[in-house]
């Protein structure tokens, strides 16, 4: 149900719904139909441009600056899982998707500068017991490709709230509470908020910024990547609203 809701209220699903309603209502209610159709087309275009995706994501990303130096009082590095490529014939096994790989790469970069123990958090994407937890796939990449050990695997969580809750429990048992939190810059405000809700002292380690570069007409051209960034940012805005309304 939650997945269907996300498809209907986030781009491009929400825009396609507006376009479809506009076409259905065009003959009987031409003014309303044209308005819905125009709104759907415009918002789909806007979210697909570099300008639109940056305007949606930048207010989230600018909340936390990039981490230049790992503070001396940091006790661990916590890396949040993202998604995965389920069927990867060149590797012969599931692998983390490009978002998760970006987080892994940055965690490795931080570890080289300050070799703190690493906790990876991310459970199964489905209820199947044979489905590999996301944290396990990330640990395999760190071990094989980066030769970096992982101290803890949290493999039961299904969302950011559970990432924080279960990770906080593992770290509290180890007597740790001050962590460098690694996730996308656009995801960091929500992730930091919920980790702090469960008692963690968070040092933000954001990565994967939507750097716009210099303005050019090409930033007005629609692309799938810009639409993906808009989708991710709008999902985070919705998540922050939900957390605020639920008191988190």
Main beta sheet = 5 strands, parallel
Q: What is the tally of helical segments?
A: 9
* Class of secondary structure makeup: alpha/beta
Q: Distance between the terminal alpha carbons, to the nearest Å?
A: 22 Å
Element order, helices and strands? HHHHEEEHEHEHEHEH
As for the CATH topology of the largest domain, it is Rossmann fold
Across the major sheet, the strand order is: 5-4-1-6-7
Radius of gyration: 20 Å
Beta fraction: 5-15%
Percent range for helical residues?
40-55%
The shape, in one word, is elongated
Arithmetic mean pLDDT? 94
Number of strands: 7
Flag low-confidence runs.
none
Name of the CATH first level of the largest domain = Alpha Beta
What is the CATH homologous superfamily assignment of the largest domain? Answer: HUPs
Oligomer: single chain
* Structural domain tally: 2
Task: Return the CATH architecture of the largest domain.
Answer: 3-Layer(aba) Sandwich
Q: What features would you describe in this structure?
A:
The structure is a single chain. With 248 residues, the protein is of the alpha/beta class. It contains 9 helices and 7 strands, in the order H-H-H-H-E-E-E-H-E-H-E-H-E-H-E-H. It has helices at 2-9, 13-25, 30-48, 50-61, 98-113, 134-145, 160-173, 188-197, 224-246, and strands at 76-80, 84-85, 95-96, 118-121, 152-154, 178-184, 201-207. Helix 1 (2-9) packs across helix 2 (13-25), helix 2 (13-25) packs antiparallel against helix 3 and helix 7 crosses helix 8. It is elongated and about 65 Å long.
